[in-house]
Amino acid sequence: MNFEHTEERRMLADSLRRLIAEQYGFEHRNQVIQSEAGMSRAMWQQLADMGVIGALLREADGGYGGGGFDIAVVFEEIGRGLLVEPLLGSAVLVGEAIASAGTPTQKALLEQIIAGQTLAALAHDEADSHYELHHVTTRAEQQADGRWRLDGHKAVVLQAQAADLFLVSARNAGDSDDSAGISLFLVPAGTPGLQLQDSATIDGGRVADLLLQGVTLAPDALLGQAGDAAALLERVIGRGILALCAEALGAMEVAKTATLDYLRTRKQFGLPIGSFQALQHRMADLLLEVEQARSAVINAAAALEADRVTRERALSAAKFSIGRIGALVAEESIQLHGGIGMTWELPLSHYAKRLVMIDHQLGDEDHHLQRYIALGEEGRT
């Protein structure tokens, strides 16, 4: 099997890597994450102009990619550079949802998203959802005049403070854990009744809780059919899982390379510490684990358009592997660096934090192991 990327994907990866190296160095990133916005609008526009956002959406939707390996190529470079720009929420999650279920008027938003003019964020998780896709307690009630009223609380919405548009899940029927009865709504930032509680994360990102109190929306705010969003959410979030796995792979590669370089240059007793057999064994194990992570990402990217059970099992297997291996890479890299590995000034510590946080986005290691097993039983019935 040929695992080489197409020439177009290689060119995109090279261009993105060069842009990050030249304009998004470590010191610049620190300035970005400490800013009030928590992102760089200038970098976001450059990503749009380069076509990075468009690469995450299909040609029929105004992009020029949208496949599993397109997502993997882009997000591996995002992981290498530790970018905090909202590609995950705006293009992969919300962009795909609009492309799949939007009306012609709603799909017109895709042009603005691809051009970098509109930032979008998915508001689906809730404080007690524990990664369960169908756990939605935010309520949506349709009024006599056809308008919708939303009430509830969404938790840990990525880059919410910078978003121009939110895609909010809410329940218009059924109990809190039913798969049926979940709907999606497009909610512009600044809508009356919508409040944000902003906070920073340990890896340099920014999130916010959304409070919805009597948020009133026009009938055309509904995305797709009322009460029928569960399958769409699963597929959209699956693409997000692939993106996170590829991002983690890029971060692992940087941490691995930095650790190898340190072992070759740091000396004790007059010798590079990399010449000590015990450390060589630990590093060899780490290299094998990173290659296993790469295989899991390739498998997930290849399965993105497969049948549901095959797709979801490959994605859960990748997320489980990334969670376990990411934690291992973070721990081993820091330990092999010694005390310096924990310092703010060393980029490695920031890569380690990001690897740990990726495990907790869109389902952690334990969640996806259980899901992988459950899907296997479902596929046998």
What topology emerges from the helices and strands here?
Blueprint: H1 7-23, H2 26-33, H3 41-50, H4 68-81, H5 87-101, H6 104-114, E1 120-123, E2 139-142, E3 148-158, E4 165-171, E5 182-188, E6 194-200, E7 206-217, E8 222-223, H7 230-265, E9 267-268, E10 271-272, H8 277-302, H9 308-337, H10 347-359, H11 365-380
Parallel strand pairs: 1-4
Antiparallel strand pairs: 2-3, 3-7, 4-5, 5-8, 6-7, 9-10
Helix pairs in contact: 1-4, 4-7, 4-8, 5-6, 5-7, 7-8, 7-9, 7-10, 8-9, 9-10, 9-11
Overall geometry comes to: globular
Number of helices: 11
Mean pLDDT: 94
Order of strands in the sheet with the most strands?
Answer: 1-4-5-8
Q: Indicate the low-confidence ranges by residue numbers.
A: none
Q: Helices and strands, in N-to-C order?
A: HHHHHHEEEEEEEEHEEHHHH
Q: How large is the radius of gyration?
A: 21 Å
First-last Cα distance: 31 Å
Largest sheet: 4 strands, mixed
Compute the number of strand runs: 10
Q: Roughly how much helix do the residues carry, as a percent range?
A: 40-55%
Strand content: 15-25%
Q: Structural class, from secondary structure content?
A: alpha+beta
Question: Can you tell me about this structure?
Answer:
It is a single chain. The chain has 381 residues and is of the alpha+beta class. Helix content is 51%, strand content 15%. The two termini are 31 Å apart. 45% of the residues are buried.
